[in-house]
Amino acid sequence: MLVQSALLQIFIFFTVLAVAVAPPPSIALESTKPGCQSRCGNLEIPYPFGIGSNCSMNLHPYFNISCNTSFNPPKPYLLVISPHHIYNYEVVNISETQIYVKNSKAQLSMACYGKGYDNKTWRSPLVMEFSNSPYTLSDAN
């Protein structure tokens, strides 16, 4: 009986210990750094992203969001520098695991075409390049 009581106490001790040190069930995006703008237009910009200097994660400039206030409401943009070009992608949503962007200029160039050399119809290719960045493209959406 003494052994069973001791085993029960040990079991209860480790159960309480496991509950006390268990991580939270889900880890949400952190809020904006203190003193930094939290929104651009209708979109909340959570850390590691940030608007302005010293507001995003310092490891990489790819987390810095610029807020273009010439639109109503303002629009957030993500700058991506590739080996051949600099792209400004409009940010349409940020979730825990993904950032959704669109390239308005590339979409427009696909929709607008005309006569090229030798009177042939010409279309420019849709380009969204993320080489040398921490981002990858997904076909989820």
From TrEMBL:
Subcellular location: Membrane
GO cellular component, one term: membrane
Signal peptide: 1-22
Top-level taxon of the source organism: Eukaryota
UniProt xrefs under Pfam families: GUB_WAK_bind (PF13947)
InterPro entries the UniProt entry points to: WAK_GUB
Topology with respect to the bilayer: Single-pass membrane protein
Domain Wall-associated receptor kinase galacturonan-binding, chain residue ranges per copy: 36-98
Alphabetical keyword list: Signal
Name listed for the protein in its UniProt record: GUB WAK bind domain-containing protein
